Amino acid sequence: MPPGNPGSDSESRRYCARLNYTFVMFAIAGLSCFLLFDYFEVPNAWQLLWAGRFLLIGICLLCVFLLRRNPQNPNGIVLFGAIASNLFFCFGAAMIDNVIALSLWNLSFATCMLIAMPAWLVWGWRYQLASSLPLIVFYIPIFTWLSPLQLTDLVGAGGAYLMTTLCIAPALAHARFSTFQRTVMLRLALEGRNAELNRVNQQLLTQQHELEYRANHDLLTSLPNRRFGLEFFEQVLLDSTRVRRCLSILFVDVDRLKHVNDSFGHAEGDHLIQLVAEGVAQAAGDQGMACRLGGDEFLVVLPGACDMASQQAATQLMRRLQERRLREGIAFPVDISIGRVTHDPVLQSDVDVDDLIQIADDRMYRQKRARRRAAAGLSDRQA
Ligand SMILES: Nc1nc2c(ncn2[C@@H]2O[C@H](COP(=O)(O)OP(=O)(O)OP(=O)(O)O)[C@@H](O)[C@H]2O)c(=O)[nH]1
């Protein structure tokens, strides 16, 4: 087959090899079945026929071995076995000395041809012709030369039918081979379309993930957004109530963001929000979650954290922000106010997220006012 021919790709060769492999296995089974036929129907020459059959079985086994080792040339390998079988068939027919047995012999070959159908499906007409040629050319001469019967006996015993079939077989093979080629072409086209669909699917999946991410996250800080954060908080509250363990939240608000925006520029205001976002994410740790509620407000949910742990988390958060400010020489103030609430389902009655957030918000404002008063007092004293 020329390169680029749709039937020449290695996948279709493997397909041919599989079909041919099955065909050869059937041939072995067929050859073995007809051993009894030889024994009972050709009593004068069954030993010779058996020798021929075993030789053929050997050739078939060799074909199987070669097909396994080299599936890239499946038709060439099976052609070798087919020519040998045809020659055996010519000589075998000449050994038979009664017409009924000869009819059965011809019938056996027709059966073999039926078994060979799947292989013809993928054979080109040239292979088909090459495999039939020994029979077309040598059957009658060998029969006339060796058989005790007359040529008219052969014609009556299905010989004419067999010869006609053999002559039209290459044409059939051609038609089937074209169908096979079209099937392979369609399969390749389908594979192409499948690959394209997979690619588009992958793109859609990526887009879907991106959309999901955008729907659930805040773009400036990459933290979960308010909706996602409150859903998470609700779930954590439910779980805490169920397993009766504490949970804490930190309501974090950036101090004097407006002043930073106005004095240092909006970009620095954004930078401040990002610094605080990184801080709250760190405070939330692996078990908790920090989200941006909006503007300069953040919520940190700490599942399993009781009063002490949440106090530590809040102190650490403030300290880390100041350390970072010093370390990076940030010009604007990096101050936050935190409203902290701990809920212990063992000691307290049921609450909902809004109650807890409201309490935390109030505490945050109280702290903010206290810090403002402290700052104002400090400046008065300094003055
Ligand atoms: N740069 C920047 N500013 C924002 C963003 N979201 C909200 N702001 C600004 O943040 C400011 C928040 O103002 P306030 O709620 O009064 O708070 P504040 O200025 O931090 O003052 P206190 O909270 O009272 O200390 C407003 O000026 C908003 O315009 C943002 O994403 N980026």
TrEMBL record:
Residues 245-381 form the GGDEF domain. InterPro entries: Diguanylate_Cyclase, GGDEF_dom, Nucleotide_cyclase, Rev_trsase/Diguanyl_cyclase. Coiled coil: none annotated. It catalyses: 2 GTP = 3',3'-c-di-GMP + 2 diphosphate. Gene3D superfamilies: 3.30.70.270. GO terms for biological process: cell adhesion involved in single-species biofilm formation; negative regulation of bacterial-type flagellum-dependent cell motility. PANTHER family: DIGUANYLATE CYCLASE DGCM-RELATED, REGULATORY COMPONENTS OF SENSORY TRANSDUCTION SYSTEM. This is diguanylate cyclase. It comes from Cobetia crustatorum. The lineage of its organism: Bacteria, Pseudomonadati, Pseudomonadota, Gammaproteobacteria, Oceanospirillales.
